[in-house]
Amino acid sequence: MKRIAIGTRGSPLALWQARHVASLIRAIHPDIEIVETIIVTSGDKFQGKTAAEISAGGKEVWVKEIEEALLSGAVDIAVHSLKDVPAFLPEGLVLGAFPRRADPRDALVGAPSLAALPEGARVGTTSVRRICQLRALRPDLQFHPLRGNVETRLQRVNDGVVDAAILASAGLDRLGFSDRIGARLGLHEVLPAVGQGSLAIEIRRDDRERQALGAKLNHPDTATAVAAERALLAALGGSCQTPIGGHAWLEGGLLHVHGAVGEIEGSRLQRASVTGPADRAVALGEGVALRLQHA
User: Fold this and answer.
1) CA distance linking residue 295 with residue 273, whole number of Å
2) CB neighbours of 269 closer than 8 A, spacing ≥ 6?
3) What does residue 287 show for φ and ψ, rounded to 5 degrees?
4) Which pLDDT belongs to residue 62?
5) Is the dihedral of CA 144, 188, 132, 250 positive or negative?
6) Which residues touch 202 (CB under 8 Å, ≥6 apart)?
7) Could you say which DSSP state residue 148 is in?
8) What are the distances in angstroms from CA 3 to CA 14, 26, 76, 184, 213?
9) Which of 79, 154, 155, 166 could be disulfide-bonded to 125 (CB atoms 3.0-4.6 Å)?
10) Kind and range of the H or E element at 94?
11) Measured between alpha carbons, how far is 19 from 229 in angstroms, rounded to an integer?
């Protein structure tokens, strides 16, 4: 293996992620040539619309074209934000590695806390998951669509288009905008998206060489946690149209899995959690889903 072509979107955050993975590969194999192949996805082409409006399933709009390039052999691996990857992959592809996870929490930009937002404040986000959970905490808030890359969203706050915005802490940290974070929202306030803060390296199922490389890049604790989260998502049949939150973490030798599901109007929000052995990650994630379905 002398060369690896990485498939990635072309946004500043996606490029940061691809280059981060490239640096991890070079640390192991400094002699490998690594090239970036920027692929425009449906989500990039139609940024004026939500993922749900572009596609019935939602999430695949950020990865479909990259996965097609991977299956065709045009690229060797793909790097994604795991939260953008659907619960079920195309035949022939696997998630071969999950590097160490960054901060999974959502971040509030424009105010030091949710409580500090004035009555009726305009909050920018297009995420039904965020809207559902925030409405349960602050029914008075008004939500306005906020699309585009991280810099564009931050500028909307600067320009006063919205009073505040909710973005992923990991993206802000990775792009050097940590100082814009007014508050990192606790898991008891807003449960993050499944896989948030984690990168996923997607590989062809029959590519044993790249899978062996992926094993060296994998962070076991992150892989265990996201296995539970993705099992929760799959069991609930989640998409961009479904307000689902999920997060898992290892502590004291046990895996803690929390999930939330609700309605966009904020009229109903159910939460559930389980704790158990780390080697039962998938079963624990499915267990949380079952509790949410019967809540």
Assistant:
1) 12
2) 132, 133, 136, 260, 261, 262, 263
3) -65, -40
4) 79
5) positive
6) 63, 66, 67, 70, 77, 78, 79, 80, 85, 89, 93, 94, 95, 96
7) S
8) 20, 11, 9, 39, 12
9) 166
10) strand 93-97
11) 26
Residues of the chain with pLDDT under 70: 45-59, 238-240, 265-267
Residue labelled with tokens 């991280």: 150
Angle between the N-to-C axes of helices 12-28 and 150-158, in degrees from 0 to 180, rounded to the nearest 10: 140
Instruction: State how far Cα 76 lies from the chain centre.
Output: 22
pTM assigned to the model: 0.92
Dump pLDDT digits (tens) for 178-197.
999 999 999 999 999 999 99
Catalytic residues: 84
- Which tokens sit at 185? 């929202």
* b (16+ CB within 10 A) / e for 120-134: ebbbbbbbbbbbbbb
